[in-house]
Amino acid sequence: MPTSIYLAGKIRQVSDRGRSYREHVKQRYPQFSYLDPCRRNFNGDLDYSPTLSNEARAIVQADLLDIATCDILLADCRSGPSFGTAAEIFAAKQLNKTVIVIITPDWFNDPSYCTGLK
Question: What backbone phi and psi angles, to 5 degrees, belong to 20?
């Protein structure tokens, strides 16, 4: 069974709902299997307030299940992480998953971003 990778990264805050990054990774590395949260059918206007809507709650739970079953979490944080992406990274680390974060070179100008990342 191939290594499975959860494709974390912004969805709501980017024009193409994050599909271009995810499709690029899937095409570039076809030897892996992918858990892509974009496969879920949602309109992008969900209520993520403290009292989550049922639809938002279901999506969050499905994403967490994907993270629990993946081997690696790959997070696109080139434009900065979203709260959801940060929560997904945290969840993966809590489960001792390998986490790979894609960042831009300017992140390295501030060493506090890299403290404790191992």
Answer: -65, -45
How far separated are the first and last CA of the chain, in Å rounded?
A: 26
Burial of 112 (0-12, 13-18, 19+ CB in 10 A): exposed
Cβ count within 10 A of residue 105: 6
Q: Is 48 helix (H, G, I), strand (E, B) or coil?
A: coil
Distance of CA 38 to the CA centre of its chain: 10
The pTM for the full model equals 0.81
Give the whole-angstrom CA distance, residue 58 versus residue 102. Answer: 27
Q: What is the pLDDT of residues 47-90, one digit of tens each?
A: 555 556 777 778 889 999 999 999 999 999 888 768 889 999 99
